[in-house]
């Protein structure tokens, strides 16, 4: 496969949460084109089985494979835990997840070696963060809490509402009796709730989003493979499986720019054609 500098970066998510990663990629790599797909029709992925999430992820990757890509970011923690390995086996371009970048950032930030993780049911049940953290630093204490109500708030555009503050406070209640100095936002939807989360956790707790570290890792990989775009004005494309209008509203507010949005139809797939 002939991979070229002008090829795009594919970014996928269960919904709008991956826009937090897309925004950071745009900031760090402003000359790179992005093809984004948010599976808002079937969001959230958290309560679904690992096999179901893997199936959905492969369908999205198959859809994105119609475009010339030079790298793919699985900007969904649940999908990263369930399908990253399988996707890497099936396509010949670099594939990044968001778990390991978040883990590295948290280990860099913690002083007490006591780290909290919040995420969807699927991500927390997979223990992907705990295993990745302890693989690097076995002495770290990890406290994981599932917050299944957070992502739907974001998907419904309620992340800046009074309801969001109430739901966030309730979801983070288990940490009232746990002393941590670092909290990993183990779902790419959660940075849109960062203000409310920080208010509950207090100033002494460092809030970690994997978006910045993921974009930095992507930059390093592209540079190493001589695939960074230059003298190039990118043309971004956004797709959703759900309502384009609600997606567009959230996306334009978060990204601070006008976007083109199209509806995508996904098909069952056994093996990705790339």
TrEMBL record:
**EC assignment:** 5.1.1.3
The UniProt entry annotates the active site at 76 (proton donor/acceptor), 187 (proton donor/acceptor)
InterPro entries assigned to the protein according to its UniProt record, in alphabetical order: Asp/Glu/hydantoin_racemase, Asp/Glu_race, Asp/Glu_racemase_AS_1, Asp/Glu_racemase_AS_2, Glu_race
Q: What protein family is recorded? A: Belongs to the aspartate/glutamate racemases family.
Q: Which GO terms describe its biological process?
A: cell wall organization; peptidoglycan biosynthetic process; regulation of cell shape
Coiled-coil ranges from the UniProt annotation: none
Do the record's keywords include Isomerase? yes
Query: Has keyword Cell wall biogenesis/degradation?
Result: yes
Task performed by this protein: Provides the (R)-glutamate required for cell wall biosynthesis.
User: What does the record give as its pathway?
Assistant: Cell wall biogenesis; peptidoglycan biosynthesis
Q: Which UniProt keywords apply?
A: Cell shape, Cell wall biogenesis/degradation, Isomerase, Peptidoglycan synthesis
> Which catalysed reactions does the entry list for this protein?
L-glutamate = D-glutamate
Q: Where does substrate bind?
A: 13-14, 45-46, 77-78, 188-189
The protein's name is Glutamate racemase
Organism encoding this protein: Hazenella coriacea
Please give the Gene3D superfamilies that the UniProt record associates with this protein.
Answer: 3.40.50.1860
Pfam assignment, any one: Asp_Glu_race
Tell me a Gene Ontology molecular-function term this record carries: glutamate racemase activity
